[in-house]
Design a protein that fits this description.
Length: 168
């Protein structure tokens, strides 16, 4: 079984009571935060190695590193082969700063996008713009409601109720 499949079964399919789930995810998020603190502190250094080497480098289990790689993969300049990787697969953490910040906001991971390391990576205005862009991306904007006696938007010249609004 591939590492990613094992990670996803453990993280998302294993039945856990509230206490165990809280402990599992709390531990994961703390370790994830520690990894991000390190890689964001040295933005000019591209972290590379096998999954096992990176797990050792950051002091986490291989399975947890797999979860981290799953989470960051959409923010990388070149995605890793996470679906098929094993612990000896070479991976890279060459991330796109703006994409990573945007995706962290999208995941509501405030413990990550509020890290002080971002101050040296993206200026405050860029972070505000990315935050706003991400929040607006999920907003549904409804068009103006067409009144029964308004001209039909199809351009026929008839009232809406006599044209396209007949069957509505």
């Amino acid at each position: 079984m591939a590492l990613l499949e094992t990670w996803r079964k453990l993280a998302y399919e294993t039945e856990m009571d509230q206490k165990n789930a809280s402990e599992f995810w709390g531990s994961y998020f703390n370790q994830e935060k520690a990894i991000y603190e390190q890689i964001l502190a040295n933005p000019d250094t591209v972290v590379k190695g096998t999954v096992k080497e990176l797990a050792e480098k950051f002091g986490v289990e291989v399975l947890l590193m797999t979860g981290f790689l799953d989470g960051i993969n959409d923010s990388l300049k070149t995605p890793n082969p996470i679906e098929t990787m094993d612990e000896n697969t070479e991976v890279s953490l060459d991330y796109d700063k703006e994409k990573l910040y945007y995706n962290m906001v999208g995941c509501k991971a405030d413990w990550l996008y509020e890290l002080p390391q971002w101050d040296n990576l993206l200026d405050e205005q860029t972070r505000k713009d990315l935050y706003k862009k991400q929040k607006l991306s999920g907003t549904v904007v409804k068009g103006k409601k067409i009144g029964r006696n308004d001209p039909c938007p199809c351009g026929s010249g008839k009232k809406y109720k006599q044209c396209c609004g007949k069957n509505a």
